[in-house]
Write the structure tokens for this entry.
Amino acid sequence: MPRSVNKVASRARKKKVLKLAKGSFGRRKNVWTVAKNSVEKGLGYAYRDRKAKKRSFRSIWIQRINAAARIHGMSYSEFMGKIHKSEIEIDRKTLADLAMNNPDAFKAVVEKIK
């Protein structure tokens, strides 16, 4: 009796990986073993960098808040300390947006905590 292999499923797996490798350079796009390694590595980077993106955005927000707070004569740590003491519930993302796009509203927040 001949050996039975599930060719349909294995071809589907390979097609899925080769579809993900589409657009790569050289053999990465059409040679199974190279494409598989490339796609696995890429998916690992994608997972890692979804986490890193959150960290980098937080640091950008902090820099923007710090710059806006210094215009009003405060450091970032001083500003955040006073915001927490006055129990104003605004997250860093919103504060950074106010600092960049609506300086008058940011100034109102500063006046409220002083």
